[in-house]
Amino acid sequence: MRCSIESKSFFIHSSVVNGKKKIVATEVNSTASSFGNTRPKTAAEPKSGKFEIPLSSADQEWLGSLLYHPNESDIRLRKEYRQLSEKERGDLNVAFNLLKNDTSVSLNKYDLLANIHARSSANANAHQGPNFMGWHRVFLLMMENALRQKVKTVTIPYWDVTLDEAMDKPYSSIIWSPDFIGSGDGVIKKGAFGHWQTQFGYGNLMRFLGGQGKLMSKENVEDILSKSRLGEITNPAAEKKFNIEEIHNDVHVWIGGQMKTIEIAAFDPIFYPLHSFTDCIWTEFREQQKAKRN
Ligand SMILES: [Cu+2]
Known about the structure:
Radius of gyration: 18 Å
Shape: globular
EC number: 1.14.18.1
Keywords: Copper, Metal-binding, Oxidoreductase
Protein name: TYR
InterPro entries: Di-copper_centre_dom_sf (IPR008922), Tyrosinase/Hemocyanin (IPR050316), Tyrosinase_Cu-bd (IPR002227)
Bound molecules: copper (II) ion
Number of helices: 10
Number of strands: 2
Low-confidence stretches: 6-30, 37-47
Strand order of the largest sheet: 1-2
Mean pLDDT: 87
GO molecular function: metal ion binding; tyrosinase activity
Largest sheet: 2 strands, antiparallel
Distance between the termini: 21 Å
Oligomer: single chain
C-alpha cells in the first residue's frame, strides 16, 4: 500500500509513557457530538450554538485567503510523520505555534480555523455521510495553506496509524514524544504543544491514549481498498468493516481528550496528520477507481 511505510525502524525511541496508565475520569466530558456509535444521527445536530462564534470581516477575509489549490509547479509532498527531518519537524512546530499566537483574527489563527470543523453548517455536512472525505480534504488543505503563510515550505505529514497499531505498546510510539506531537497520558506539558489551551471552556490540550476506541490496522486499510464505490466505504450505507469514517472515528476515540469530540477535535494538532493519512487512503481508493474504469 502506497500510503503506508513498511520500515519499523522509526520505533527506536525514548519511552514517553511509563507503563500504561489507567484512564482517569478527567477525560474531556462533553455534551457535544462524540465520535463513534454513541453519536446521534439526526440532521438537527449539534444542538449547542456555543461553537458558533460570529466571523468578523477580517476573519472571513483571512479564511478566504486559504482557499486555493497549489499550482502544478508547487506540488507538495506529504511525508509520513516519522520521515520528516528534524528541521522539517521543527518548521512544522514553529508554523503551528505562529498560527496559535497570531491574534490578528478572532480567537487566534489556529483556533479560528480549527473552529470551522465545529460550526454547525460544516459539522452536519462533513460527518456521517459520503461528503466526509471531500470536506476534510479541503479543510486539511486550508490548514496546510495557513501553515505555509508562516513557514512556506511546510506540508502536513501523514500519520500512518497502521504502524502504531502493529506495535505491542502503541502508546509508547515516538509520535507521543515531546519532539513530535506530545504526550498521551493527560495534559500535554512538554514539547511544541506543551500547555496549549483550547477554546469554549475545554482548557488544556489533553489525551488519554488507548482508553477506548482502536487504531486503524493494515487489514482495515486493505478492506477499504477492496471496495470500488464511494458508497461502499462511507456512511450511511457502508458496513462498519469497510467504513472509512467509522474506522477513523475509532482513532479519534482511541486518542481521547479533545480528539474524542467532533466540535473540539481540530484543536489537537494530531487531527491533521490523522486526516492526512485518511486522505492518502482516499487518494489511493480513487486511483484504483480510475484504473478500473480504463
Ligand atoms: Cu471531522
